[in-house]
Amino acid sequence: MSKQFTQRKSSERRAGNGNEAADLNSREYAVGWPDYELLDAGDGKKLERWGDVVTIRPEIQAHFQPGWTCLDWQARADWEFEELSSTQGTWKKLKPQANEHWQIAYQQLTFGLKLTKFKHVGLFPEQQANWRFIAARVKPGDKVLNLFAYTGAASLVARTHGAEVVHVDSIKQMLDWANDNQARSALTDIKWVLEDALKFAKRELKRGSRYDGIIMDPPAWGLGAKGEKWKLENHLADLIETAHGLMHPGAFLILNTYSPKVELQDLASAAAPCFSRNQSEIKQLWMQSKTGKALLYGNLLRVIA
Ligand SMILES: C[S@@+](CC[C@H](N)C(=O)[O-])C[C@H]1O[C@@H](n2cnc3c(N)ncnc32)[C@H](O)[C@@H]1O
User: Which molecular function term from Gene Ontology is one that the record holds (predicted)?
Assistant: First the structure.
């Protein structure tokens, strides 16, 4: 599973040299919080602080000069991820006392983090932009469906605001990790579903289920629970149409995309048959480093039905 754009069309490459004027109409910025900071970015990498642990990870969007020197980065970092292939790699320990497992807080939630061979540590911090949206919209008793739900951050945010949450992921280890995060956050009763997200959503539609919020963070590519191949661009319209059918009037939909094959215009076209433009926000998701570098993380569709 990759959350990274691998390439972008030249029309979209205009942004991201770090400090140019932002086109704020089409951007939303996630922000760090006490336990997470994007410290710096550049030279194809990003330097991040997760609680006490500082990592260096590859970042294809960081095609500009970093704010700090290589020596600054090495002095701060505990771990550096070294890619062995486009999908996997190993972590190099830069400090003898560096932890491989640790936890961080986000508001009242607690997440267990660890070093994975896919360069991720168990949280996509740019999703903070969606967590604040969810927190502002969800009311006690709302039904929220989280598809491609990973380690459960969005599920926990919705649950902590009183939602009944159905959390769907096709990988058992991800459900276990999310369940562990639920326990660490002293929450209960999230419904865990190990299944292909779209199959589950279509079954829910047939059953007549309806939701007050739907969150989808599909990978650009991946495998379903039975090894089915997944390419986002082939399923985008179906995902949006299925979500539309599952939404109560006034319900929200959040869809993140991280695929080079899905541009803002593709999101607009896929959403158009179901939602009018004044129901939808379509924009890029960005985050700014402590050193003032702006990083692009992907595209975002939000709808209020
Ligand atoms: C990009 S991650 C989601 C990140 C998460 N929403 C967050 O920000 O915390 C994608 C997730 O989708 C899951 N996945 C991949 N293909 C799937 C499929 N066909 N059905 C359900 N889950 C799938 C992966 O196991 C992974 O946990």
Answer: methyltransferase activity
For residue 230 and ligand 1, the question of a CB distance below 6 A is answered with: yes
How many Cβ atoms are within 10 Å of 78's Cβ, its own excluded? Answer: 22
Radius of gyration of the chain (CA): 19
Residue 64, Cβ neighbours under 10 Å: how many?
18
Dihedrals φ, ψ of 27, to 5°?
A: -125, 145
Q: pLDDT tens across 45-83, in order?
A: 999 999 999 999 999 999 999 999 999 999 999 999 999
Q: What is the pLDDT of residue 225?
A: 60
Residue from 111, 101, 130, 133 nearest 36 by CA:
111
Secondary structure element (H or E) that encloses residue 156, with its range: helix 153-160
DSSP letters spanning 64-91: S--SS-HHHHHHH-SEEEEESSSS-EEE
pLDDT tens-place string over residues 265-283: 899 999 999 999 889 999 9
Give the residue, out of 1, 111, 113, 145, with the most ligand 1 atoms within 8 A of its beta carbon, to mutate for a pocket test. Answer: 1
Q: Percent of the chain scored above 90 by pLDDT? A: 81
Is 214's C-beta closer than 6 angstroms to any atom of ligand 1?
no
The dihedral sign for the CA sequence 121, 127, 132, 137: negative
According to CATH, the topology of domain 122-304 is Rossmann fold (3.40.50)
Q: Comparing 17 with 82, which gets the higher pLDDT?
A: 82
- Considering only CA atoms, which of 89, 102, 67, 65 is closest in space to residue 2? 89
297 touches 287 (CB < 8 A): yes
Q: Among 5, 121, 147, 169, which is best to mutate for testing ligand 1, by the most ligand atoms less than 8 A from CB?
A: 169
Total length of the chain: 305
Could you state, in order of their start, the residue ranges of all structural domains in the chain? 122-304
